[in-house]
Write a structure and sequence with these properties.
Layout lengths: L1 H11 L4 H15 L2 H7 L7 H8 L1 H7 L1 H4 L2 H12 L4 H27 L4 H12 L2 H7 L5 H17 L3 H14 L4 H19 L4 H20 L5 H10 L14 H12 L3 H17 L3 H20 L10 H25 L1
Length: 344
Amino acid sequence: MPGYLGSMFTTEFPDSQDKVRELTFSYIKKEAPADQYNNLIGINPTSTTRQYFAQNTQSFTEQLPYFQIKVGYILAITFLYKMGLSPPMSVLFTSLISYFISGLLIFYILKILFPEKYILTAFFTAGIMLLPTIVYMSGESTPDMFIFLFILIFLIGFIKRWSKWTMFLLLLAMTFIRPDYITFALTYLGAVFLYNYFTERKTDIVLIIQGMVTLSMYIFIMKLYHYPGWTDLFYDSFIYRRPIISVQPAHVSLQDYLQVIYSKFFVFKKVTLSVFIMTAVIFWMSREAWIRVVSVLFLANVYIKFLFFPQSADLRLFFPFIFPLFIMILYVLSQKYNKFSKIA
């Protein structure tokens, strides 16, 4: 939470970095339970880095670009703050509102797939929304629940076959909210381009332009907020969290990277088993090429995410790419069910 609140206050007080840090931690202190706040500021003598963030303005300010680049999310919490919510509550309410809307969207998706099964759809939706990972995301001060909402809209667009420009705007919005979703945006556009080329022998220049626009926006955001880069993020996340970024350069050797990947991959076994089983079920149940392509797209993005940021124990980071595979299974089932219903 401090990073997102600091990013919000920086837009309001761009020339007062001390004030930004003080406001951030004073607001959190007012509303957070004492034990959580003490943990946040590193009351434990061994939590040196957290103590720096809470007490040293340079240390805190240099961490902010990691959060500032999530422009769409910062705008969402800023909107709620301007509407009268306290800064910490504006962060939490963004997740809670996203949770509620996501429930409505899941119900809508299931209603599209099984149009006459309202009671079953309602119970199924309730069961999905009570999944531990979704409940956990709804209470976290991160953009994960917010971006999940847009993934659900994307799935609606896929099922209802929205135009490529509408889908492009969705991908652009996702990248605006979480720039690391640039990989999903570009792989989707690339998949559509290759699918059209091999099935229709058509080179769709529009998709290339859309990819260039998305990539340009991504680069602009990175430059605007002076984002340190992937090496710094990986180093701070998995090797050593530097109290002051500018004092110690980040260096990640190939050996360092492979050691982290190797150690994290074993925790990823359940996810690997789940996504491969779901993808295999989709391939077994459907021979439609486009459904298979999109399924492989989501499968691939689980591992693209892992290779760039192998926080394997944190399922919330991968869930937005895992859940669509489950919806794809239901989509294939609905096609068979609706076909049999018409025959009956």
